[in-house]
Design a protein that fits this description.
The protein is an alpha/beta fold. It has one domain (6-151): Beta Polymerase, domain 2 (2-Layer Sandwich). Helices cover 27% and strands 23% of the residues. The chain is built from four helices and seven strands; from the N terminus they run αββαββββαβα. It has helices at 6-17, 40-49, 110-121, 165-183; strands at residues 21-24, 32-35, 57-66, 71-80, 85-94, 99-101, 124-126. It has a five-stranded mixed beta sheet, with helices on one face. A two-stranded parallel sheet has the order 6-7. A hairpin with a 4-residue loop joins strand 3 and strand 4. The longest helix has 19 residues, at 165-183. 24% of the residues are buried.
């Protein structure tokens, strides 16, 4: 087992894919590289099968909405069980029509991750075998994790609005106090002090 540093893995990606792989981010807990959307499948296949890298597990696939930049980032967290190293890839998509090829053919776990990102962010994963909502009803309007998403006020007569939870907690506290006061022994007004 050989643990490779993120810098070594990044150098191998640059050697193989050139300008399709961006620079490595500043050192953080999870440094990342931005890659081109049209090369994502090829890059992922390489990372999974290349001897010494063998990223055999797609740990997570999620997205981040950046409305001011007009970008949705799709984020891939990769892990090699064999070598015990990790890598994070990001792909920047046009927020107006976010679309990217599926990596479900590389890692089967991408199937549900991609459906979740489609459901909550509206990202289309081209080539996905069953791209449909996974959390919300099929006829739900919009994608709730987009920062400009507006609540519609309900779905088929079921409200999705609730009062401030602090108001409800205060009501419960007041009810407990009243209940405790009623259960407490009352002083006898006829007793002498």
């Amino acid at each position: 087992m050989t643990t490779r540093s993120t810098h070594e893995i990044h150098e191998r990606l640059l050697a193989k894919f050139g300008d399709a792989v961006g620079p490595l981010s500043e050192p953080k807990i999870d440094p990342f590289a931005v890659v081109k959307r049209e090369r994502i499948v090829e890059i992922c296949e390489f990372l999974k099968t290349e001897p010494g890298l063998e990223f055999d597990f797609l740990e997570d696939l999620t997205a981040i909405d950046w409305p001011k930049r007009n970008v949705i980032e799709v984020v891939y967290h990769l892990l090699s069980y064999t070598h015990r190293h990790t890598l994070v890839l990001k792909v920047e998509l046009d927020r107006a029509s976010p679309s990217i090829p599926t990596v479900e053919g590389v890692w089967k776990t991408a199937n549900w991750f991609e459906r979740e990102v489609y459901d909550l962010f509206g990202v289309t994963f081209t080539g996905h075998p069953d791209l449909r909502r996974i959390m919300l009803p099929d006829d739900w309007i919009g994608h709730p994790l987009l920062k400009d998403y507006q609540e519609a006020g309900g779905w088929h007569g079921i409200s999705n609005e609730r009062e401030n939870p602090l108001v409800e907690l205060k009501r419960l506290d007041d009810a407990k106090r009243a209940e405790a006061a009623a259960a407490a022994p009352q002083p006898d007004p006829t007793a002498k002090a």
